[in-house]
Design brief:
By secondary structure, the protein is of the alpha+beta class. The chain is about 35% helix and about 30% strand. It has one domain: GMP Synthetase, Chain A, domain 3, CATH 3.30.300. It has two helices and three strands. The radius of gyration is 13 Å and the shape is globular.
Length: about 80
């Protein structure tokens, strides 16, 4: 699934220096959620994740069949730990 999402969105978000790290379906409170996790070699601030989310949402909206029968789409960044 990650490869499919990456092939759809990575070119469009590369100018933000982010990429798709994972894509998976989870279930929370009876809802199927399609999760897209983005990552970067640098810290992803709120503005950057917001911009990436807008770009990804637009692409996914045009390819709605990609998220199958999920109830929600959740896009978030990978958390950076201390080194």
């Amino acid at each position: 699934m990650k490869e499919k999402i990456s092939s759809l969105v990575d070119d469009s978000i590369k100018d933000l220096n982010v990429f798709v790290d994972d894509a998976f379906i989870s279930e929370e409170e009876g809802k199927k959620i399609f999760n897209i996790v983005v990552d970067s070699d640098e810290v992803i601030d709120l503005n950057k994740i917001t911009d990436a989310s807008r770009i990804i949402n637009k692409i996914i909206d045009s390819k709605i069949e990609v998220i199958e029968d999920c109830d929600e789409l959740d896009i978030y960044s990978k958390e950076k730990g201390e080194e």
